[in-house]
Structures are given as structure tokens and as C-alpha cells.
Amino acid sequence: MSLEGWKAFFEVGGVILLFLTFVFGAGALITSNRINAVQDERLREFDKELTDAQSALTAQKERAANADARVAGLEAEAANAKATQQGVQLELAKQQEKTATAERALLELQERVQPRHLTAKQKTDIKTALESSPPQNVGVQVFVGTPDGIPFSLEIIEAINSAGWTATHKGQNASGGQIRGLALLMADINHPPPGAKALQDALKSAGIDAPGYNDHTLKATDLVVFIAPKE
Length: 231
Hints:
By secondary structure, the protein is an alpha/beta fold. It has helices at residues 3-113, 120-131, 149-161, 196-205; strands spanning 137-143, 166-173, 182-186, 212-214, 224-227. Helices cover 63% and strands 12% of the residues. Helix 2 packs across helix 3.
């Protein structure tokens, strides 16, 4: 090839290379711009997602804080309710104690005012106990003003007489006001008259306590069942 041919060849090649350089440069520029645009878009999307995530996290924190506040409020209400319940239970216990005390007082009052009577079993117990001892003479006396004294004394007399002993009513007596319930009067409790121990045991078998008291107006052989108020 001649020099002119080589020159033309190189000129054409240079033009082609220049064209290709332009084309590739333009392509690189366009591609770079497109890549930058895509990256910008992705960056904006990432920023938006990050902002949304931060907003959601903030909202979650707020909800958690509100929940903690509600829990604290419920715990405080529960504590107050428990304290109130304890107070109510304490007051209820006090009222129950007062009621029980009032019921006991009422029962005691009823016991004091209820007339005394011997049941059929008590009469039988007294009779059975006295039948094993030699018959004795017994007086029955009532303290003045004893509400159930006369009717009760008649029942005592009946029970003693049923055993073959001899019990008689001796009326009422104004002395012996310190005695409560039943008592056995005798001249000297250290030297009781015949039948005193047997009568005391017989009454006790019927659930009736009858302690001995001295009455120096009595004879050494006298034995008196004295009926005084219960209280």
C-alpha cells in the first residue's frame, strides 16, 4: 500500500476512533447519569423507609410508655383496692366480734332471767343418788325477792321426796344475800349434819352446784337447801 493509502487508512481510523471515543464517552456519561438517578431514587426510598421506621419506633415507644403508665395506674388501683378490702375485712371482723359479744351478753341475760326448772332427767338423777343414802329431813328455803324461787323450790322438794327423804318448805329468808344460786345451809360446814354430803353429791349429779354455808341460827342436825337469785 502506498503512503497515501496508509495516510487515508490512518485518517479514517482516527475518525472512527474519535467517533467511538465520543460514542463511548457519551454512553458512559448517560449510563453514569442513569446510575446516579437510580441511586438517588434508592437513597430517597431508603431515607423514606428510615424515616417511616423511626416514626414507627417513636410511636411504639409512645405506646409502650402509655402501656407502662396504664400498668402503673392499674397496679396503684389494685393496691388501693387491696387496702380497701383489708379495711373492709378488718371492719367486718370487728363487727363480727361485736355481734358475738352481743350474742353472748344476750345469752347470759336470757340465762339470768330464764326461770330455773328441773328436767325429768335431773329429777331422776337426784332420786337415784339419794336412794343409796339413809333418808334425812331437809328444809328448803328461798331468799326474799328471788323471781323463780318458789316454783323452783317446789321442784327441788319433789325430787328429794321422790327418793324417800322428807323435804319441807321453810318459807322465805331475808338473810343470805351474798349467796348466788343454790347452797346448803348448816350450823357448821366443818361438822356437816347427816345427809349433807349425799345431798350435795345428788344435786351435783344433776348438774347443780350447792356449796355449803354456815348459818349459826340452825341446829347442828339442821340441813337447809337455800335458793337464791342466779346472779
